[in-house]
Design brief:
about 130 residues, mainly beta, Metal Binding Protein, Guanine Nucleotide Exchange Factor, Chain A, three-stranded antiparallel β-sheet, 1 helix, 10 strands
Length: about 130
């Protein structure tokens, strides 16, 4: 069991089971939503994600048709994403998980959108667009 929360602590959740492989996404939407060079996301079975508190402050933004990014309306922290085309999965933002979460970065995706000021300095696979999960 891994716990997570937003910056202000109003949204709290837990994830059961393995975290699986994490993708670092450099697409423009993820960069803008996270204010950084990439977002660190892990795709989980929706049944393994349990919201403990904060339902009343979570807002969802449809960033593209059928793609929803959820964030805390109090502090702005992105907490998860979901896709209408993949209703059995939730994508959790790793920055919201407790520090000792056992996550492993497996690949870089949407590298063709990576900002020029950021350099990837590892040997993990790099995909110009999305990679299959």
């Amino acid at each position: 069991m891994v716990k997570g929360q937003c910056l202000c602590g109003r949204v709290k959740f837990e994830v059961s089971g393995e975290l699986g492989s994490t993708r670092l996404c450099y697409c423009e939407l993820c960069r803008r939503a996270n204010g950084s060079a990439f977002s660190a996301n892990v795709r989980l079975p929706a049944s393994s994600y349990t919201l403990l508190s904060g339902q009343d402050v979570i807002r969802e933004y449809e960033s593209s048709p059928g793609a929803f990014r959820a964030f805390c309306s109090m502090c702005g922290s992105p907490v998860y994403a979901r896709a209408a085309s993949d209703p059995n999965h939730t994508r959790v933002r790793l920055g919201t998980l407790q520090q000792d979460a056992a996550a492993t970065v497996a690949a870089h995706v949407w590298v063709r959108s990576k900002p020029g000021w950021y350099t990837i300095a590892d040997d993990l696979p790099q995909h110009p667009q999305a990679a299959t999960q």
